[in-house]
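Quick one, tokens below:
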């Protein structure tokens, strides 16, 4: 997930979103937080389950039901 549209749709659908850290040579990444529902988003950060995550540092993955 990258765009505001992605985060809006995840919030609307109440999809669970996890937070991952990935360095360039690492194709899979490391799970940083099991996350939860998107509560808000700004151009700089995403608020998930009461915590804010910097968009530039993390990758966000939604669980599709």
């Amino acid at each position: 997930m990258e765009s505001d549209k992605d985060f809006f749709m995840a919030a609307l659908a109440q999809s669970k979103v996890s937070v991952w850290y990935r360095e360039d040579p690492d194709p899979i990444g490391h799970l940083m937080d099991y996350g939860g529902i998107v509560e808000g988003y700004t151009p700089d950060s995403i608020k998930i389950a009461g915590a804010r995550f910097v968009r530039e540092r993390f990758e966000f993955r939604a669980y599709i039901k």
